[in-house]
């Protein structure tokens, strides 16, 4: 099963909105076939593994990270192929999270007198597909917030300088996070201050993640990289009726996708984009894994609205100081300390001189 999970991870960021799945065919304790799901619409992992095993599948065991499908979609049911191949035992890490289908594939296999075992490395398998699982169950994307800061929580100096607070190893992990995401989201302030590209720059990649800019009032320049570079067709602007019509029209003419979102009152009575509505609109476009890279205003708004699923905070052993220097999480924040956001399943990792804290909300 560990091998099946490793195979599934090869398609990180490429299968959405489908889950990542790996499969291994074993006979006489030897792997005779293996495969993984490459992208939506392509053959499933089980089919690749069975094809690789050829005519040796009868009486073999199949290890698969997710319950085999039993319905007709863009590809035929995997359960039919498993039964036809003469597999004697199927070991499944995680069941299908879709309540409409959960357990049905397993029952079909049992009716065909195939031995079924469930739960081997199940926690790891579910963690691998946590964005897919949330989307299927709630219709909302999985939201990971990322910030790079000094030990005192500053993401830039009082003059706005932020490149680079953390080191190369931290930035390499950020590239890995982007590679696995469907979209990288920032606020308009980040576009104005840094004019980032928000692309995956390390290694070969079949597709770049969507770049999503939250800009309720048309603050970002039309000449920003995300609106004018060669990847601009994969940029989405989440905006509101407050944004000037000429600005919105010009973005659309440049090939940028413009989505009008609902509004809600925020601090001091000022209306801001309803981020829950904005995220739902992304999920409707099958954008189910969103990496939010800032800035502090956007992260604060997401925490205030309880829309964060996971936090990845990078720290450099530096002190920046300054009351006016921006912090990683702004927004309204909490009153009583008992209301502080407590992370679960916390992981600490050293990255050169830096360290990263990863946890679930």
Strand content: 15-25%
In the CATH hierarchy, what is the superfamily of the largest domain?
Answer: Dihydrofolate Reductase, subunit A
Low-confidence stretches: none
Largest sheet entry: 9 strands, mixed
Structure write-up:
With 361 residues, this protein is of the alpha/beta class. The protein folds into two domains: 129 residues, Cytidine Deaminase, domain 2 (3-Layer(aba) Sandwich), CATH 3.40.140.10; 222 residues, Dihydrofolate Reductase, subunit A. Helix content is 28%, strand content 25%. It contains twelve helices and 16 strands. The strands form three sheets. The protein has a nine-stranded mixed β-sheet. A five-stranded mixed β-sheet has the order 2-1-3-4-5. Helix 4 links the parallel strand 4 and strand 5. The longest helix has 13 residues. It starts with a helix and ends with a strand.
Summary?
With 361 residues, this protein is α/β, with parallel strands linked by helices.
Which key terms come to mind for this protein?
single chain, 361 residues, alpha/beta, Cytidine Deaminase, domain 2, Dihydrofolate Reductase, subunit A, 2 domains, nine-stranded mixed beta sheet, five-stranded mixed beta sheet, 16 strands, 28% helix, 25% strand, elongated
Topology:
Elements: H1 2-9, E1 22-27, E2 30-36, H2 45-53, E3 61-66, H3 78-84, E4 89-94, H4 104-111, E5 115-118, H5 122-128, H6 130-138, E6 142-150, H7 168-180, E7 183-187, H8 188-194, E8 210-214, H9 225-228, E9 235-239, H10 245-253, E10 257-260, E11 263-265, E12 271-273, H11 275-284, E13 289-292, H12 296-304, E14 310-316, E15 344-351, E16 354-360
